[in-house]
Amino acid sequence: MIAEAGHYALVLALALSLIQSTVPVAGARWGDVALMNVARSTALAQLLFVAVSFTALVMLHVSSDFSVANVFENSHSTKPLLYKITGVWGNHEGSMLLWVAILALFGGLVAAFGNNLPLSLRAHVLAVQGWVAAAFYLFILMTSNPFLRIATPPIEGRDLNPVLQDIGLAVHPPMLYLGYVGFSISFSFAVAALMEGRIDAAWARWVRPWTLVAWIFLTLGIAMGSYWAYYELGWGGWWFWDPVENASLMPWLAGTALLHSAVVMEKRNALKVWTILLSILTFSLSLLGTFLVRSGVLTSVHAFATDPTRGVFILLILCFFIGGSLTLYAWRASTLKQGGLFAPISREGALVLNNLFLTTACATVFVGTLYPLALEVLTGDKISVGAPFFNLTFGPLFVPLMMAMSFGPLLAWKRGDLLGAAQRLTAAGIAALVAIAVAYAWTYGGSTFAPLAIGLAIFVIAGAMCDLAERTALFRAPFATAMQRARGLPRATWGTAFAHAGVGVALIGIVCETTWNSEYIGTLKPNEVARVAGYELKLDGVTQRQGPNYREMIAQFTVRLDGEKLSVMSPSKRNFTTRGSSTTEAALLTRGASQLYISLGESTNEGAVAVRIYHKPLVLLIWWGPVLMAFGGLLSLSDRRLRVGAPKPAKASRALQAAE
Amino acid sequence: MTRKQRRLTMIGGSLAVLAVAAALVLNAMRDSIVFFSTPSMAAEKQIPAGKRFRLGGLVQPGSLVRGDNLAVNFSVADGSAVLPVAYKGILPDLFREGQGVVAEGAIDASGVFRADTVLAKHDETYMPKDVADALKKQGHWKDDYGAKPSASAAPTQGAPK
Predict the structure, then answer these.
(1) What percent of the residues of chain A are helix, what percent strand, and what percent coil, each to the nearest 5?
(2) Were both Cys, which of A190, A221, A332, B3 would link to A279 (CB 3.0–4.6 Å)?
(3) What is the pTM (predicted TM-score) of this model?
(4) In chain B, what are the helix, strand and coil shares in percent, each to the nearest 5?
(5) ipTM for the complex shown
(6) Between residues 58 and 117 of chain A, which touch chain B (CB distance below 8 Å)?
């Protein structure tokens, strides 16, 4: 019964989305308020039905109803409850259902909180959301129905892929989808603006918070995925330049650019046409990511069962939305009015530079990801484009971007003073030089490149602090005045500083981990000692244990530093009988921002175990950086000037009504 | 500056960055791209010693020999040719005799493929896509490689036709 109810709710959601995608557009054309308001009610009703459908699938998984194909293939009755729930989106059908559920959630949010939007704009935005939703409902119902029954229900399920039986699955995909799909809102706003042929600063003011929400989730989602890969795959890598990872990095780069160009549009009413294009491109890249992941045209560490019909269907959706929106753009973009003027050296100019480098970096990732596919189709040669390619292209493009990053916030709008900004960054420059000297002296004879990169990172962090010190007149005015000014600063300014510093923090982590990583790979017998980076690790012994749905081999290590016992680490290897596969559970010991990492290989007949031990200096900074960026985003989001949906104070109302 | 000059500055700057990016991409394409071969393709193309490529095929059953200190030797076969592989390190969890494998490295002077990475990029049928495609092309593909563990219980799933 539950499966049928879930299926039926999904069909109803499709019907509602079809109404949502047509009736409001007609209403906007005829100026009929009642018809335009249909968008709001259908969007909310659609959210309700998708929620029912999704809940139904969760209930089927929790109750282990193996008469449903999706549950049979991905669940097992002995699986812990958490993984029964997260297993819902640990497979193709379920994850697509999560995708549309989040799409409906964003549509519902616009419907619920969009009361102060011009009526026709809201109708158009929700109609575009309706088109996207309808396409994906059709996709699910026609090619990937999660509610299919099996004629003769088996007694036991096939269990979830063991690698996915981890807390990471509970966090990473929902976060990532909130980011991916969140960009659909800026896409809908862009297409709606093109349909209306009108766009202004109020439009940007509306789009920015939605883009920011999506960007925050995408940032956290990518960071979480990277950390998950780091501790779960067992060899300590945290970024593989794998097609599926690139698929999430590309919308992030474009989305970051969009976030910055929307600022120019909101504040200065310039770069309108470009902002619209970026909105379209960002969501197009999200759709491309969905296609790459779900069609399986590229081999990747993400193991998904694939089916060609699905790939073709998503490709059609992709062509329709990207082709359609770009055609609309080509046709209507010229009708949008030109915005404010600015000199090349100005805040606007700096943001244009930011956009230029981010989109170019995005383009190189795009080439590296899709070139193997294009070459295989054209010549039949199979090639792989790996980390060296991306390090040689993406890296050099990020260096000037990071150097410019500190200057941008210090330049004035319209016409900036580069010399003045440089003077105010003197302290940051000195800090960077000191950092380079210290890093170089410390690691004398080692890499010369790494200290320079650390200097750049320090420059970015110190630059963000210089900006704050400048604005609060710290060191110039009495301390109390500075504190008062700090409280009075817009939260968006704090957000910028935190987010920019986060980039520097992540860079320090990346440089330290890749340059000064030390490792021990070998076989150890009980009571033998391995030495890594000054730590002594003694293998105490190996034991066997029975888990809920696996058998586990646990090795226990005693960790000593300078003869003093620090801790005990227990990496393990789990063997899942149902799927006949095994996973490596690495043991991590955190020391400040550095980590010791042990993962096990196979055991030999003489009782020895193959082990990999890594010491990764400052590795945690790689993920603290993105967390800091997301925190900056959150601060920015809480800025009163951005909360257009909240009850507005009298002062702000003038700017908002400008849209009508 | 007039509007036109400003626009020209901007377009000029953009083109300069794009040109630099294009140069970087082309340069990286030349050096850092790795081709995929099966043992018979490698023999046919006479890949010179020291040139890196990705070797894909099936791990020859019975060929796996473990030496001292994590040294491993095995052979990769594709039905018509066999290439011995030497690797030092821990094999991935999914490495099995008779199953598909992809290794990256180069052939040394004695004709042994020295792998520095052994990849376990498998889907649930334990067959890397590249290997499956190559075997299909050479006519050595057997359907049971791709069979799921319990094909008889497989549900009737797919698009309604």
Answers:
(1) 65, 10, 25
(2) A190
(3) 0.90
(4) 30, 25, 40
(5) 0.76
(6) 69, 72-73
